[in-house]
Amino acid sequence: MAILVTGAAGYIGSHTCVELLCGGYDIVAIDNFSNSSQTALDMVERITGKKMRFYPGDIRDKDILNRIFTENEIDAVIHFAGLKAVGESCEIPLEYYDNNVYGSIVLCKAMLQHNCKRLVFSSSATVYGENNPSPLREDMPVGAATNPYGSSKYIIELILTDLFNCDNSFGICLLRYFNPIGAHESGLIGEDPNGIPNNLMPRITQTAIGRLPYLPIRGTDYDTHDGTGVRDYIHVADLAKGHIKAVEKLANSTGVFTYNLGTGTGYSVYDLVRAFEKASGLKIPCKKEPRRPGDIAVCYSDPSKAFKELGWKAEKNLDDMCADSFRWQKNNPNGYRK
Ligand code: NAD
Ligand code: UFG
User: Fold this and answer.
1) Ligand 2 centroid distance, CA of 321 (Å)
2) In this predicted model, what pLDDT tens digit does every residue of 72-99 receive, in sequence order?
């Protein structure tokens, strides 16, 4: 029996593959490398000393999915594959719906056809939209996403819920991630965005090593303790472990289960910059800039449901996250591109 991991070469997928292999699971993986590289998979095998079975390909290709399910006994699927850039999703919304929504439908059809009924899905805190107050709880209203990426995640949550409603033998976990940062402590795998990073941590690390001249502080007049945006940063290794707990839950339960994966603590942009400076011993040049359109002031989770029902909670603190992000960037200044 094996776990099928879609988007396995990506940032969260690669860290989850490490945790799965270390936990004794067999992995069948698929990725089209649209936002990743083969090196990430090689590094996963190097870290763990274990092999996985990899299929290069696209989840929208039903023939390759059919082959995967025919050639392997798949017990459960962890579904990371998709596009994730908020800004880009406003420019090419149809690509986002095609990749994320249609891709998920093709995957679910293959699962149905091959009687595989356990699925862990990468959702996002973005589904809570801008109207709910933090700490965000799973029972709050969702769906008022402010961009096509967020809408695609919400639509997939609806589709998966309908899938269970018509076939109660499915077990589905919808994991709503907050802000994953950090890297594996080996420094061999980490986040490797294309172009100038939109997200805060890779922007900080690339500034630290001199690839970028300064860090723009996007908004200093929010109603927060220091005027900058507050987020729930979570170490990617903790996030990865949450997926193992979700797979374990689905081994003996059917239903649709929604969990926040966050730490429950909010840190501002300046908090993160200070923690990073402490961890790296470097000074990050900052420049105040206007707010980024669509950003909210505060977003952090109530993660207590995941603790109560999965026995999962984040273990690593902000210092660990900063130290690991820095190690990855320092050891790999150009990411996976040598
Ligand atoms: P990532 O881009 O690093 O990983 C996604 C992987 O999927 C990449 O390796 C990419 O090549 C692959 N992929 C994309 N489309 C594919 C397709 N059609 N067929 C096969 N492979 C495909 O992103 P990540 O940060 O690892 O995110 C993983 C998942 O978690 C995504 O679904 C993302 O939306 C979700 N998520 C991420 C964050 C975050 O901040 N990183 C937050 C919330 C949710
Ligand atoms: N920020 C800066 N300068 C930068 C980049 C970001 O000041 O160069 C600020 C933002 O304004 C925000 C905070 O840093 O206050 C965090 O921004 P990120 O872009 O790192 O993260 P977001 O919370 O905006 O979005 C992330 C993911 C989304 C996901 C969301 C909720 O990018 O995909 O978390 O999970 F939907």
Assistant:
1) 16
2) 999 999 999 999 988 889 999 999 999 9
